[in-house]
Amino acid sequence: MNKTVRLSTPNDMPRVLELIKELATFEKEPDAVIVTPEILVEEGFGKDPLFTCFVAEVEDEIVGMALVYDRFSTWKGRSIHLEDLIVKEKMRGSGIGKELYTRVIKYASERKVKRIEWAVLNWNTNAIKFYERSGAKVMKDWYIAQMDEDGIKNYLKKNENI
Amino acid sequence: MNKTVRLSTPNDMPRVLELIKELATFEKEPDAVIVTPEILVEEGFGKDPLFTCFVAEVEDEIVGMALVYDRFSTWKGRSIHLEDLIVKEKMRGSGIGKELYTRVIKYASERKVKRIEWAVLNWNTNAIKFYERSGAKVMKDWYIAQMDEDGIKNYLKKNENI
Question: B77: helix, coil or strand?
């Protein structure tokens, strides 16, 4: 099996989006994805790219992706965030996920960051075990908070006087 | 009381670091902060800044800060992360936290991002209530995973062949 992991190009973005949608379905939110291939190209390959994306290919077909970007920890300093690591369902168990994960960790090491951070669903026990065995710490005492566009608009309307 | 919220300057970083250390103590990890004022200046005010920091002043003393940076959601698109929002202990309850929070939400709105995200400790019920009342969604089904510098080094040593 001819496997490679490489940096993505703008041309890969339609296929990368298919993988993103596949993951959203796995995470039980198939309609939550509003990103388009054009947005991925614009935000990832413009003059101030917001992310770096790796793709895994088998026999010239993209079967996995990992998307990362810089963050800043006020405790540790420069770090990277692993936003998504996705392997096409049929290819799971083939070692491709581990190759992408290793590529991300090499990227972190090359950039000399202090930390890699990501989120994992608490019912995804296979992923949690994999991450813990690999040397990551899975922290169970944090919640993730989000305010979406409507939330932002409503908040500012209610708090005009501040 | 003469209160202002403004963008920080490099000169504010020593005081900002004191607030970061105060929060680390509140979160029961006083020794976890390895960042220095020099690192904050370098990463926040160089040619490719990693973050934007706001400070709150009362009678010319910095009593609070909020630190944010760009992220990218593969579902929603451009977003911002609120890494820290800190108010000096003696000034809590004075409305300064809400002013900083509002400044961050305005910043998000000005930049037309799709989402603001942050993390909150699950025992910090006052903060959770405040966020929920403000229109944020606090998600309880995610864990945060982290691999630190030693973890990165050890992983790559064990997986040299990948």
Answer: strand
What's the gap in Å between the CA of A136 and the closest CA on chain B? Answer: 4
* Residue A56 and residue B110 in contact, taking contact as beta carbons nearer than 8 Å: no
Angle between helices B96-110 and A149-158 (to 10 degrees): 130
How far is Cα A41 from Cα A51, in angstroms, rounded to an integer? 10
The position carrying tokens 């708090």 is A159
Tracing tokens 């920080």 back to the chain, one arrives at B8
For A19-39, what is each residue's pLDDT tens digit?
Answer: 999 989 988 888 999 999 999
Question: Which CATH class for the B3-158 domain?
Answer: alpha beta
Of A24, A83, A122, the CB nearest to B141: A122
Q: Which residues of B touch A32 (CB under 8 A)?
A: 75-76
What is the model's pTM? 0.94
Tokens at A130, concatenated: 């994999």
Residue A44: how many CB atoms within 10 A of its CB? 21
Indicate if B131 belongs to the active site. Answer: yes
Domain layout of chain B by residue ranges: 3-158
Q: Is A34 helix (H, G, I), strand (E, B) or coil?
A: coil
| Nearest CA-CA partner of B56 in B108, B22, B94, B23 | B94
